[in-house]
Amino acid sequence: MPTYTVTTANLSLSAAQKGQIAEAITAAHHAATGAPAFFAQVIFRALENGEHFIGGKPNAHPHVFVHGMIRSGRGIDVKQKLMGEAADKVRASAGVGAEDVWFYIQDIDAPQMIEFGRFLPEPGAEDAWRKAITPEKQSQLGKAGVRVL
Questions:
Q1: pTM assigned to the model
Q2: Which residues form the signal peptide (predicted)?
């Protein structure tokens, strides 16, 4: 499951903005990689005033940082498409300039991740893995509006 952590500095996002950003990152990940949308998760963190420094100096200007951890095996073209599309939508939703959104992707090999109690499959082998998610977990996710199968 790709995990994207969105950290804001000197900026407070509303629930609506967070929803827009989460949807944009999820849609960009799905469109670029073909991975099922339900795989993507987005976590938000806000830094307190005085916790963001650039060049060793306090920064008071709003910034958004997106750190994505995804399965390895995708080319730079796929990753740059994902990042470019998502960064543009994050910028628009957060109301900041393009230079104030910093986006990072980190590749992790599938055998180095456990999600839903099992090691992740290699890209392209998600169907069998997904079908093995217990009915209880599928029900739990369904109640939250997430469609697994």
A1: 0.88
A2: none
